[in-house]
C-alpha cells in the first residue's frame, strides 16, 4: 500500500502556477502528508511535435496512476480566455477509465489559477476546473472566509480556490495574502484527506 499523498497537478507556462503549486505543497506538508508535484506536457497543433518523456526542469509529468492513487488533488492552471489551459484539459480528457471505475469518488479536491490581469477570468477558470472533478465524484474544498487573507487580499484569492495576479508581463511575484491562501488550500486539502482516510469504511 502506498503512503498517502495529495497530488498537486498543474500546468504552468511562465512559472506563476508552479510557484503556487510549491506553496500549496507546503500547506499539505504542514498537515503531515506528502505533496506529490506533477505537471503535464504542452500540446501542439503539429502532429509530429513530441515532448521528452521527462521534463528538462521542474516536476515530472503526471501519470494516471498518480491520480488514481492519490488521497486528494490540487489542480492548477493559468487562465486561457476564462478557461483552463488546453494541456491540462487534454490530460483530464484522458481520465475516462478512472471515471468508469469510480477511482476518484469521495476524494477531496481543490483548484488554483493565475492570470495576467486582476479580472482576467480567475473565477471562471477555477469553475472550469471544478466541473470535471465534480463528474469524477470528488469532494470540493474551496477557501472559506474564515481565512482572513481572503478578506484582506489586494491581488488574487477567491472562495472557489487560490488565485494569483501575475501582472501584464507575468512577473509579479505572489504577495503574502496569495501565499497564505495557497498554503491554506493545501492544509485544508490535506486535513480533509486525513479525516476521510481515518473514517473510511464507516457508513453514513
UniProtKB/TrEMBL annotation:
SUPFAM superfamilies found in the cross-reference section: Flavoproteins
Keyword Plastid in record: no
Enzyme Commission code: 1.6.5.2
Residue ranges of domain Flavodoxin-like in the record: 6-190
Keywords, in A-Z order: Flavoprotein, FMN, Oxidoreductase
InterPro entries from the UniProt entry: Flavodoxin/NO_synth, Flavoprotein-like_sf, Flavoprotein_WrbA-like, FMN_Rdtase-like_dom
Family: Belongs to the WrbA family.
Protein name: NAD(P)H dehydrogenase (Quinone)
Annotated organism of origin: Pseudomonas palleroniana
Gene: wrbA
Amino acid at each position: 500500500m502506498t503512503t498517502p499523498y495529495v497530488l498537486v497537478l498543474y500546468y504552468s507556462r511562465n512559472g506563476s502556477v508552479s510557484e503556487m503549486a510549491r506553496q500549496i505543497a507546503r500547506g499539505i506538508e504542514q498537515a503531515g502528508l506528502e505533496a506529490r508535484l506533477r505537471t503535464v506536457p504542452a500540446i501542439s497543433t503539429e502532429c509530429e511535435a513530441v515532448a521528452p518523456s521527462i521534463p528538462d526542469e521542474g516536476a515530472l509529468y503526471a501519470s494516471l496512476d498518480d491520480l488514481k492513487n492519490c488521497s486528494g488533488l490540487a489542480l492548477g492552471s493559468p487562465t486561457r480566455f476564462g478557461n483552463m489551459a488546453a494541456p491540462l484539459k487534454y490530460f483530464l480528457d484522458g481520465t475516462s477509465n478512472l471515471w468508469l471505475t469510480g477511482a476518484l469518488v469521495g476524494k477531496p479536491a481543490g483548484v488554483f489559477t493565475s492570470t495576467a490581469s486582476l479580472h482576467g477570468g480567475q473565477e471562471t477558470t477555477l469553475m472550469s476546473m471544478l466541473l470535471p472533478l465534480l463528474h469524477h465524484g470528488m469532494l470540493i474544498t474551496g477557501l472559506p472566509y474564515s481565512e482572513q487573507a481572503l478578506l484582506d487580499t489586494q491581488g488574487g484569492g477567491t472562495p472557489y480556490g487560490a488565485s494569483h495576479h501575475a501582472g501584464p508581463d507575468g512577473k509579479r511575484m505572489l504577495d503574502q495574502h496569495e501565499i497564505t491562501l495557497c498554503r491554506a488550500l493545501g492544509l485544508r486539502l490535506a486535513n480533509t484527506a486525513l479525516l476521510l482516510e481515518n473514517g473510511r469504511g464507516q457508513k453514513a
